[in-house]
């Protein structure tokens, strides 16, 4: 196999596969160039070693992902032009040297919220390419929420016929008309074929797509499609406001059966060993004590835990693990196999790790990329408090208070791109980059190799030109672009 093939511009591919390319410098690269898989290279998965000498490029990797990383590093070393879509004829230079490398964390994730604003399939595929270039390896796709259902489920066509579309979005600036939305219809969904294509595209790049079907809150779009799923049965619309809707799922066997069918489809389409059931921000106001009692539960507060246990058990029958937002830690009887996404700071993740859960660190204080990037008055996306690229670079995924014997429970970290205020692929670019590049280094590099002093220079001199070549509309370090 040759991992260089799919990643490099064509003339370079010719080089990497043994074609001729004359290079006229001391750091000349000649043929042949090879990639070898050697599981004995390193105890670390995804490890690789790259040797560049005047005689050629040689990469050894412990596994196929490591081979892909070697090719990605090689592309970085070729310079920004190697990131252009167009073929570039001419000579390429590589510095001679050795790279021995492996990731610090196994879960190097990004959440993309395609529910609040739909992103077309082509944008998701492009985003996967950008993730791969940054050696990120988990795409958490937030597919369902109050404001939209993006996952086609053949058994329940109204989920996407109705649940994928809303009348408008709340922007806070509605001049006339309905004060709750801007009157611009919004929607879209992924067909089963689209999702299979996304999963396969990701797999080729050694990225796992973790699907999220959020229960029992964040479910108003599903209830709009099938009102009988709701706790009151009253008809509702796909929500056009932001925030947390009061319309939760009814705690009944019928609703569980519905979601089991949804999840049967999800596990058929997605190959991820982990499926996210959400479990976050669940209002209990629409549930009645008798409903809880009918399920043998003490109070309505126990209903979210019941959903998680029941549907998580169903996923387990399919051999899949459940991921839940850290709110799930509030519930008794949580299976120790449940993976916890620690978003309300690091405390919940620390507690979960100590209690024996595997954890993905996602703290909103550090890695929520929907947050504004400065206090500048022209900052176009004024969400929350400011988080700069340097702030993200300074993030440390292992909480200081986590005892050492629980460190291994932290599988890694994940950056969140919630899209309430990101209504186009360009806005997603702007929010994501270059902060995601800083995050990628946080989850990849050994802690002692992190270099906050040198990062701004490396970013400006080496990485932003690559993003330019890739056509990424990132936020410039010197301020917002109008
Ligand atoms: C909290 S993180 C949420 C999301 C929002 C986000 C906005 C989490 C589990 N819930 O639904 O989009 O804040 O920053």
UniProtKB/TrEMBL annotation:
Enzyme class: hydrolase
EC number: 3.2.1.52
Family as reported in the entry's similarity comment: Belongs to the glycosyl hydrolase 20 family.
Database matches in InterPro entries: Beta_hexosaminidase_sua/sub (IPR025705), GH (IPR017853), Glyco_hydro_20_cat (IPR015883), Hex-like_dom2 (IPR029018), HEX_bac_N (IPR015882)
The name this protein goes by in its record: beta-N-acetylhexosaminidase
Organism listed in the record: Actinokineospora guangxiensis
PANTHER family named in the record: BETA-HEXOSAMINIDASE, BETA-N-ACETYLHEXOSAMINIDASE
Recorded catalytic activity of this chain's protein: Hydrolysis of terminal non-reducing N-acetyl-D-hexosamine residues in N-acetyl-beta-D-hexosaminides
């Amino acid at each position: 196999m040759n991992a260089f093939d799919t990643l490099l511009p064509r003339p370079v591919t010719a080089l990497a596969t043994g074609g001729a390319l004359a290079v006229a410098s001391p750091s000349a690269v000649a043929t042949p160039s090879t990639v070898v898989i050697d599981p004995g290279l390193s105890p670390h998965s995804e490890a690789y070693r790259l040797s560049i000498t005047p005689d050629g490029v040689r990469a050894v990797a412990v596994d196929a992902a490591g081979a892909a990383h070697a090719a990605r590093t090689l592309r970085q070393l070729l310079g920004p032009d190697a990131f252009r879509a167009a073929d570039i004829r001419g000579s390429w230079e590589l510095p001679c040297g050795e790279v021995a490398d492996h990731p610090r964390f196994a879960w190097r994730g990004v959440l993309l919220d395609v529910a609040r604003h739909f992103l077309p399939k082509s944008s998701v595929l492009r985003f996967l390419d950008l993730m791969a270039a940054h050696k990120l390896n988990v795409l958490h796709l937030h597919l369902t929420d109050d404001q939209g259902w993006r996952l086609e489920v053949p058994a329940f066509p109204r989920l996407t016929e109705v649940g994928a579309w809303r009348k408008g979005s709340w922007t806070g600036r509605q001049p006339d008309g309905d004060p709750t939305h801007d009157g611009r219809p919004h929607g879209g969904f992924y067909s089963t074929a689209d999702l299979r294509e996304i999963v396969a595209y990701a797999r080729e790049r050694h990225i796992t797509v973790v699907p999220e079907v959020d229960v029992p809150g964040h479910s108003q779009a599903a209830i709009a499609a099938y009102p009988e799923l709701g706790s009151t049965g009253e008809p509702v619309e796909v929500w056009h406001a932001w925030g947390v809707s009061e319309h939760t799922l009814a705690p009944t066997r019928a609703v569980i059966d519905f979601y089991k069918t949804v999840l049967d489809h999800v596990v058929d389409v997605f190959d991820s060993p982990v499926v996210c059931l959400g479990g976050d921000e669940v209002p209990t106001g629409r549930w009645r004590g008798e409903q809880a009692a009918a399920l043998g539960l003490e109070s309505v507060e126990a209903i979210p835990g019941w959903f998680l246990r029941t549907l998580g058990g169903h996923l387990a029958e399919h051999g899949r693990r459940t991921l839940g937002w850290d709110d799930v830690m509030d519930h008794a009887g949580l299976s120790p196999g449940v993976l916890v996404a620690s978003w309300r700071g690091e405390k919940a993740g620390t507690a979960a790790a100590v209690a024996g859960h595997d954890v993905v660190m996602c703290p909103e204080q550090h890695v929520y990329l929907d947050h504004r990037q400065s206090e500048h008055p022209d900052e176009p996306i004024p969400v929350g408090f400011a988080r700069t690229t340097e702030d993200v670079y300074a993030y440390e995924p292992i909480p200081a208070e986590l005892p050492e014997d629980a460190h291994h429970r932290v599988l890694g970290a994940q950056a969140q791109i919630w899209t309430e205020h990101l209504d186009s692929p360009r806005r997603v670019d702007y929010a994501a980059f270059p902060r995601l590049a800083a995050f990628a280094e946080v989850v990849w590099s050994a802690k002692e190799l992190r270099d906050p002093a040198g990062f701004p220079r490396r970013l400006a001199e080496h990485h932003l030109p690559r993003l330019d070549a890739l056509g990424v509309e990132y936020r410039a370090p010197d301020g917002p672009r109008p």
